[in-house]
Amino acid sequence: MMMPQSKSWASFGPRLAALREHVRFAYQLLIAPWPPFLIFLIVIAIVGALMPLGHLAAISQLIDTLSTNLNVVPAEETLSVLELLQPYLPWLLLLCVMILLERIIYYEPFHQYLAARTNEHIREHFDALFFKKVLTAPLKQFESTNYYDQLKLARAMIDDNIASQLLQIQTVVAMLGSSFIIIGSLAAVHWALLIPMLPGSFLLLQRHIRRARQVVAVTEAQTTRQRRQLYWRNLLTQREYAAEVRLFGLSQHIIASWRNITDQLLQETAAVRQRGKRRDIGIALITVGLNCTVLLGLILAARADLLSIGTLLALIVLMQQYLDHLDRIGLRLGRLQGFFRKLHNAGTFLAHKDDVVEGVAPAPPIIGDGIRFTNVSFTYPESTRPTLKDVNVHLQPGERIALVGENGAGKSTFVRLLLGLYHPTEGYITIDGIDLKTIAPTSWREKVSAVMQDFTRYAMTVRENIGFGRLAALDDAPTIRAAAEQSGASEMIEQLPEGYETLLGREFVGGHDLSGGQWQKLAIARAYLRDSAVLVLDEPASALDALAERDVYHQFLDLAAGKTVVLISHRLGSARLADRIIFMHDGQIQEIGTHEELMAQRGYYATLYELQAAWYREQEMDETTQQQVS
């Protein structure tokens, strides 16, 4: 009958595998970028570990030689200084070499230079791995607060002075090596000296490590609140919030909120430090007790002629060095606990396998049958309520579709699924019968283009803001000018100080900011630049008035002839330009048809359309009345 495995043994295998994985990651991240640093660490660790042997030999032999020669009657002839020192010179030389090596090993300016060089290599290497991981992560991850916490924890490692942390590890290894040699030297005198040494040393290290673990645990538990603290700070210091914060008089409220969360964080950290002070008292008592016990043992050993006076004094010196090492090892291990945890977080983040398997099939060169949504539902991470529910629709090639509905109806989620940025949680989307999940993302994204509602305003030149739509055309001035003309942005661009080379935004000196409508025209030009089969406009003209929006849509649809166009607008008047209108409500398609068909149904669309039409008529009457009065 087989005995059941204990929990500790059952978990040993996975723990060992995890340890191997983290060691491999640590090597790839911290050492592989610059191997000379590893060689330096190994050499210094070995030399540092062996130094107590040199100290022991030099001090004990020097004192023993001195005590022996004190009893020797000098000859009548006068001896030179060199002749007097001759018996001591080998040990003096060895002691000087040990002191010199110690100064070299722990020479701070050299460490700082080496750390700076190494940090440059490691940061560059880590950033490359980090960017690759973030860019290949499914877009839905960015909807998860947990993902942002993981991102912050992973990024925290590179914010450390990594090379200095590695030097700390090297110092700990060297001190551990020298400590074992000192313990061995004491055991060689008498094994009984190990009785206080081993448990006392273990207790000291345990207390240091336990204290550090508490600090690390509190720091990680504060991650989400630290992000909230940073958010409150950004509300006060960043340009995009400045006007509204002042307009509504929010400054004092934001400062109070920031101070409240800051006080919470400080109180938790102070509580850990207070517990650490009580633990320091225990550490001091253990250190004194261990020191006195071992010194008493050494004195008794000397009285029993188990060691010479020189060896006794050397071991007393080494014992003080050992206690100093033990204290420094404990402190360094405590500080390194945080670094090891950050290394673990970074390794876990980079090694995490996303649950989405990207397709590899090419997209159809020409879309013949169109795009079909079949029983498609989608739920965002950390949400239990579906944003889209059982959506079924067929988008014909070259068809112009208007997607309308109230805010929160699921329109933007629909187009993100269409663009392949998200995958359905239920159902599937097919392109000419091919499941979109099986198509390589890069292949499908060459076929689609979009102007998103929350389009990006790049703090770069006008040329780059447009050229990012198709990188191959980034330096193709005629093509970029043509896209700008199509979007109606060319006249505005020509009035800028440097034309297409004008730096935009306020982030950098010399930047020129634009109005919301001007930025939108650049975003539309960026979409025009890509010769795509499917074009999505997610309220691209929301910053324009109704007439300007209608002009943009007319021009856009003329230029998009032959393409499949999905147009989202909260102004239903623009929806009349589409071949079909899809009205969404609460994540579902409620109505679908032409403008005339939906008006005849007298449903959601007709009701909302008449409300908007009445509002525009009232506005027009008010303007007419004001003109007559004036």
Q: Brief description of this entry?
A:
The chain is of the alpha/beta class and about 625 residues long. It has helices at about 5-10, 10-30, 35-70, 80-85, 90-105, 110-135, 145-160, 160-190, 195-220, 225-235, 240-245, 250-305, 310-350, 410-420, 440-445, 460-465, 475-485, 490-495, 515-530, 545-560, 570-575, 595-600, 605-630; strands spanning about 370-380, 390-395, 400-405, 425-430, 435, 450, 535-540, 565-570, 580-585, 590-595.
Q: How would you describe this structure in keywords?
A:
9% strand; six-stranded mixed beta sheet; 23 helices; 10 strands; disordered N terminus; 630 residues; alpha/beta; four-stranded antiparallel beta sheet
Q: How does this structure look, described?
A:
The protein has 630 residues and is α/β, with parallel strands linked by helices. The protein is built from 23 helices and 10 strands. The chain has helices at residues 7-10, 12-31, 35-70, 81-85, 89-105, 108-136, 145-159, 162-189, 194-221, 223-237, 239-247, 251-303, 309-351, 411-418, 441-445, 462-467, 477-487, 490-494, 516-529, 546-559, 572-575, 595-601, 604-629, and strands spanning 371-378, 388-395, 400-405, 426-431, 434-435, 448-451, 534-538, 564-568, 580-585, 588-593. The chain has a 6-stranded mixed beta sheet, with helices on both faces. It has a 4-stranded antiparallel beta sheet with strand order 2-1-4-5, with helices on one face. Helix 3 runs antiparallel to helix 13, helix 9 packs parallel to helix 13 (309-351) and helix 10 (223-237) crosses helix 11 (239-247). The longest helix has 53 residues, at 251-303. It is elongated and about 120 Å long. The N and C termini lie far apart (103 Å).
